[in-house]
UniProtKB/TrEMBL annotation:
InterPro entries: Globin-like_sf, Globin/Proto, Hemoglobin_trunc. Keywords: Heme, Iron, Metal-binding, Transport. Transmembrane segments: none annotated. This is Globin. The keyword Heme applies. It comes from the Bacteria. The lineage of its organism: Bacteria, Pseudomonadati, Pseudomonadota, Gammaproteobacteria, Oceanospirillales.
Amino acid sequence: MRELNSPDAITELVDAFYGKVLADDVLAPVFQGIDLPRHKPKIYAYWRKMLLGEHDAYRRNMIARHQALHSRHSLQHQHFQRWLALFLDTVDERFSGTIADRARRLAPMITTNLQKTLLRT
């Protein structure tokens, strides 16, 4: 296992995670029609900001991006729970250390915040 402490490690995390997402029966339909190769640099930047503190890396409104996704494909609680399970599995399978621990703590908070905002629960 490696430390989740560099931009290269973030790239590995995101690529491995989205490999699982695109193969998943619950989440793959949500991502149909999204140009993921074009979108991934933004995802890398988001996680570099969240995990490595690179605040200049990501300057977009993450909630607004997910609201647009929600308007195209009605997201439900099952989508968020599956996203979280796959994300945590990916971290657990590949990474160790304090930043991996931070990712494990942040992911449920991100999921909860998105659900509250998008699903109005």
